[in-house]
Design brief:
single chain, alpha+beta, Thrombin, subunit H, 2 domains, 1 helix, transmembrane helix
Amino acid sequence: MNTVTPVACSAAPRTNPYRWFAALAMAGALAFSFAAPGVAFANEGGFRHNVLMRGQVLEKEDQTLVVCVGQADGAQVGQVLEVIRHKRRNRGPRDVGPRYRRESVGQVRITGLFDGHYAEAEVIAGSPKVNDTVELVRP
């Protein structure tokens, strides 16, 4: 007579030993993705920018400019804007850091507004060129 004797099986199903490591790595990546933007802005004065208005020099004729900031951006006649030129840095192939730097090259005063998005300005200091950036900086 065949009798079957029950055998106690205490072996639990095997799990992947690296599964916990993958979960830990995923949690770390998620935490880093939330922390990294705050660290990136820490050098820039927090989450608030100091520039109220920014545009570009579109045209220059003698000491008169057309800039791409207008009434829709909050521009007003008489406002003084800083003129910024972005210059490429001379770097070696292994150098790290930003490839460009900001250089203040003058100031302009808005003399007239037209078309809601553009303004005419006069040069009051420096020598702005076409494609320079103009900014109204928060006091």
